[in-house]
Amino acid sequence: AASASLLLLIGGGVGYYHLEQPPTKEEIFNEYYKPYEVTVSYRSAETEINGILTQAFKAYKNEKFSKALGLFQQVLSKREDIAARMYSGISYIEIDKYNKANKSFEKVINNKDNLFIDQAKWYMSICYVRIGDLDKAKHLLQDLKTTSKHYSAKSNEVIKKIEEAGI
């Protein structure tokens, strides 16, 4: 009975210790990342490029991210399109190409005159968490915490998790 109690005590302690482990960067990423919803639409495919863009958004909505990325890249090879840049970034995340995603988001942010800047900063910060560049992630999250109504609370949560994890 004594050895059974000791085993239970040790097992319970190990279980408690396991529950109290700080989150990993992968766990933080998985908790806070989800693909951005399609929020843009094109009324008609009057030009070839708009037709390709419409196809890209359909592929994206259907979670065919590699196909969507190829179509977004076709559009971007012909003209700059901030929506195509933004959704290319998300598509890159979906195929585990975080550095390429961040290059897309950086172009969105540097454009300065669009509605996707906060979203691009959010996704860029989440990519930085995933690849382990936590200083860059925290810098972007601090910025969002003070400048974005939509991402302020989530940014604060991620900062706390990063600090709690000590990674």
List keywords for this structure.
74% helix, elongated, 9 helices, disordered N terminus, mainly alpha, 167 residues, single chain
In short:
The protein has helices spanning 2-19, 25-32, 48-61, 65-78, 82-94, 98-111, 117-131, 134-147, 152-165. The protein has 167 residues and is mainly alpha-helical.
In words, what does this structure look like?
It is a single chain. This protein is mostly helical. The protein contains nine helices and no strands. Helix 7 (117-131) runs antiparallel to helix 8.
How are the secondary structure elements laid out?
Layout: H1 2-19, H2 25-32, H3 48-61, H4 65-78, H5 82-94, H6 98-111, H7 117-131, H8 134-147, H9 152-165
Helix content: over 70%
Secondary structure category: mainly alpha
Instruction: Note the main sheet.
Output: none
Mean pLDDT: 88
Along the chain, the helix and strand elements come as HHHHHHHHH
- How many beta-strand runs? 0
Shape: elongated
How many helical elements? 9
Q: What amount of the residues lies in strands?
A: under 5%
Parts with pLDDT < 50 across at least 5 consecutive residues:
2-9, 12-18
Task: Please state the CA-atom Rg, rounded to the nearest Å.
Answer: 21 Å
